[in-house]
Amino acid sequence: MAYKGTAFAARLACIFVFAGMSAYGTGQISTDSATSPATSSVVTNFNNGDACVAQTLPPTHILFGTSKKVFAHYFFPYPISLDNAAPANDYYNRNYLSRTGESSKFAAQGGLLRQRPLGRNPTADAAWLQLNMEAEIKAAMARGITGFAFDVMSVAEATGSNSPLQRMLAAALAVDSRFKIMVMPDMTTLRGNTSAVVQIIAAVASSPTAYRLSDGRLVSSAFDAGLNSAAWWTSVLSQLNAKGISVAFVPVFLSWQGSVEAFAPISYGISDWGTAIASSAGAMQADPDILHSAYGKIFMMPIDPQQYRPKDFAYWEAGNSAAFRNAWMSAINGDADWVQLVTWNDFSESSQISPYTDATLKRDIGTGYYDMNAFYAAWFLTGQKPTITHDVLYYFYRREPSTAAGPAQSQLDKIVTGTAENDIELVAFLTAPGTLKITIGGVTYTQSAAAGITSFKVPARPGVPLFTLSRSGADVFSFPGGVQIYGSSGIPSGVQDLTYWSGSAAKSGICSL
After folding, report:
1. What is the 3-state secondary structure of 7-33?
2. pTM, rounded to two decimals
């Protein structure tokens, strides 16, 4: 992480750089031949002095050494770079974030996306796609993620040395072979194509970074597995077994309760795609116990920060960071076996927890979910609530109210589930009691906060919010939000944006990437 503050120079030394690209997390890198192949470098420690995370993450041998796993759903159509071009004029900025991009294909929606990955400068290295994946793995590890669940929509994406899945397997081996890739055929595109699903799962069977259980079984998931019957999946698993590939199947359903009776006999575990609604995320706490006690299966808990889909004119009300935090607490208190972050990088659904930005390429406006994830992931993996070592403030808010005008698109975005909220949220991780302040539109709101975690929400108003932590009548530190809030007339571009933008700061400065 980089810091805009007094400690910038000292902390800059903690940033690791891979192949000329600044990775998103901080840490120390060393090679440990005793715990991984000679071809794999092992990242042994993270976050010493990382002001954007409220605690020190345990060494990676602790995070990887537990039976619990934190997977992030990887959606390969949105990598760090699509064309190895300068970010200001790359494919994301020219097409996906532009209303007239791709020959105005998504002009009615105001453009396909509202966020994009952080850009990187072009490189002459022919292996730039894999190098970018390596940087993403390092970034994920820096926030407690132990593997990717790789969504595969066709055989071509999984087979051949230059396919996205094979590049990811190679990237994991290059960074740290303990970081595992769980293959996840996407049944919304593969449907009933038995041959394709068998080929996709078999394509990872020989890789040392494909996820396997301690008994040697290859772990495979499947997105929206219920599109096919349990009998159909039995045939798939039998064909793989005939090839000498024993599979531990962990299907993902859009609603697991209606499918568990049929699928439990053929599955190692069960998962659900989840929800970006705070109340629903909190209600999933009982699900792991049901799977454990009634079916003897593991449960992979979904954790979804937000859902906003400009291409569909649709959003679900996440309540700023509430859906994300509630889902994490459901996983922790419910004793889930694994979690799946939904998602690492699906920018078309705004569900990514990887750092994100907009066409301005600002590097401090999409880091809140990413940085906060480190605290909950460490808690989940170790079973111990981390000790907050220094004060960190995280913010989450939209650029405009949900009812703002959007004259540059054919219709306003509609809420699918929940009740629309238009708040500014400040989430404080504090070492000691303090007073939180949010100043917006000439009005200052205050709230007393105990040591620990406090969520403070106030109504959104036009302007740039200012966030402050005070103690004993004196300000400890203060910083502005990264994006301006507009009123009912909407953003000047006329394109509606219901993204929850996020960021954070500590006393040493504003967190940026």
Report:
1. CHHHHHCCEEEECCEEEEEEEEEECCC
2. 0.92
How would you classify the pairing of strands 21-30 and 15-18?
A: antiparallel
CA of 412: how far to CAs of 239, 314, 513, in Å? 48, 9, 32
pLDDT band at residue 210, thresholds of 50, 70 and 90? Answer: very high
Structural domains of the chain in order of their starting residue, each with its CATH number: 61-385 (3.20.20.80), 393-512 (no CATH)
Rg (CA), the chain: 22
Question: Would you say residue 9 has pLDDT above 90?
Answer: no
User: If you search the block for the tokens 């699509």, which residue do you land on?
Assistant: 82
User: How would residue 49 be classed by pLDDT, with cut points 50, 70 and 90?
Assistant: low
Give whole-number Cα distances, 460 to 141, 334, 497, in Å. 34, 33, 15
Rounded to a whole number of angstroms, the distance between the first and last alpha carbons of the chain is: 5
Q: How many other CB atoms are there within 10 angstroms of residue 312's CB atom?
A: 13
The 3-state DSSP class for residue 280 equals: helix
Q: No. of H helices and E strands in the chain? A: 14, 26
Binned at pLDDT 50, 70 and 90, residue 513 comes out as confident
- In DSSP terms, 415 is beta-bridged to 315
For 471-481, b where at least 16 C-beta lie within 10 A, e where not — what string?
Answer: eeeeebbebbb
Torsion angle, CA of 21/22/28/34, rounded to 10 degrees? -30
Cα–Cα distance measured from residue 151 to residue 211, given in angstroms and rounded to the nearest whole number: 14
Cα angle value 338/343/344 (rounded, 5°): 100
Q: Is 273 helix (H, G, I), strand (E, B) or coil?
A: coil
102-116, 122-136, 461-475, 499-513: least confident range: 499-513
- Nearest-angstrom CA–CA distance, 185 and 429: 38
7 has a pLDDT exceeding 50? no
Give the whole-angstrom CA distance, residue 495 versus residue 107: 10
**Chain centroid to CA 345: how far?**
6
Q: Tell me what pLDDT residue 51 has.
A: 78
